[in-house]
Amino acid sequence: MATRTPRDTPAESASSIQTVQRAALILDSFTVSRPHLSLNEITARLGASKATAHRYTKALRAANLLRYDDRTALYSLGPQVLTLAAAARAALPIVTAAEPFMDRLVQLAGQTVVLSIWDGESPTVVRSADNTDHLIRISVRVGSRLDLSTSAQGRVFCAYLPPDQVPALGKLLRRAPELRAELDWIREHGLSVNSPSENGLHTIAAPVFEGDAIIATMAIVGTSVDVPRQADSPMAEALLEITQDLSQRLGNNGAPHHIEAV
Fold it and tell me: Could you count the other beta carbons within 10 Å of the beta carbon of residue 185?
């Protein structure tokens, strides 16, 4: 005899949907510029009573999606969010598509190769491929957020993203007018080689396009001695060739990319 599975009533289904929507709204309230929120701020964001907001924050804390600091009485995102973010990044189609191209570049350049995507505010590393043949290996942590103006990958995104997708760009250009000339140079040559060295390391980066839009950047990271700054170096040419091959696989026809000036 078949067993019938009880179904939720329309009211129960609507309640479940509202619960998920409210939990998502709370989690979405946290940003890089506002990583800590008070219960009053969460309540205002939720548009419900403080008791309701407290009930949701308690449930999210139990799931390790929120943490609470007794000293400051502020909430922040919990450790489980990092696990979910890592899983989400690993599932991105660009990561799967880029993997063989990155491995090929590691073999050609002999250096660490990094793939980053735009997270709405800055580049975020989604894959790093090390050169295991080196005695000293350079590793870049997946999930790292890169500086918008000083990192090579940040500059590439500034050069190719529409200005309205980079809200901080206008302020950066006013504060550092020389950056405008650098972005023009990147668009002309198709890569960034002039980013400042940090801790003895240097990075060169190039865009990856899906159709006509930039979807990621690929970069070579190595010591200042190993990674040259010349746009016509064999390493830079290998980076350009491989990112162009990947872009063609993603539907880019090689047409020039015109970005409206800020």
Answer: 16
